[in-house]
Amino acid sequence: MLNLKIKIFCLLFILPFTHTVAAESADEIISSVEHLLWGKTVQGEYEMSIRTPYWQRTLKMKVWMKRPDRSFIRIIAPAKEKGIGSLRINNEMWNYLPKVERTIKVPPSMMLQPWMGSDFSNDDLVKESSIINDYTKKVLGKVKINNQSAYQIELTPLPDAAVVWGRIVYFIRVADRMPLRMEYYDERGNVVKTLSFSKVRELDGRKIPTHWVMQSSAKPENSTTIVVKKVRFDRVIADKIFTLRNLRKRR
User: Residue 96 falls within a domain, yes or no?
Assistant: First the structure.
């Protein structure tokens, strides 16, 4: 009889409390990583190298983000692509092509399309979907990634969230909550692509991974690497940056 009472007590009080703590822990870990990578605002210079078996090219770009609803990207080199820009305001996105002086609005159905022929999608670059706001989080356990203990956290989209992934699995180093890898799954449960983080160094007073490599499962021989060259976090960014008028400028 006593054992039965103990089991009932556990079911009613201890187990629900344990689940709540786990859920809060997953939220807290993800929030910590997102703040590390992006802060409240971020502005910086990035280099994107796209490699396939047949060709490769490198783009240099400047990025401004005011989380969670505004993003602006401007390509500054090479000359062939210089001036191309991408702007997101809330759930709307536009691309600007200076050679034809044309601004193109990107429909939601195109958010999964490659950005500038890379393995990163429009959604990846302008961060339309929010990992913090659009997904529930659950710690699946701890695993070893390159001999490092890492949290394995599953992100499942909320029912009404405008997201493009069936789920995301995030691997975050236990020791310092440094992101190591993200796996993106479609609605059928297949891994579509993987993003790996490496080469941690200090920029603007915080240690962050400076090499981000995206690889497609369908084309494993292809890869796109983003290198963080310069970055500043949590500075004031003028609202005029995130305007169509600014998008249409060539520099």
Answer: yes
CB atoms within 10 A of CB 84: 19
Residues 6+ apart with CB under 8 A from 194: 181, 182, 183, 184, 214, 215, 217
212-245 per-position pLDDT tens digit: 999 999 999 999 999 999 999 999 999 999 999 9
Model confidence, pTM: 0.85
Q: What is the DSSP code (8-state) at residue 116?
A: T
- How many Å separate Cα 26 from the centre of its chain? 17
Domain that residue 64 falls in: 35-247
Please tell me the total count of domains within the chain: 1
Give whole-number Cα distances, 79 to 19, 87, 180, 225, 245, in Å. Answer: 54, 20, 33, 20, 22
222, part of any domain: yes
**CATH number of the domain where residue 170 is located:** 2.50.20.10
The answer to whether residue 1 is domain-embedded is no
pLDDT tens for residues 118-130? Answer: 999 888 877 766 7
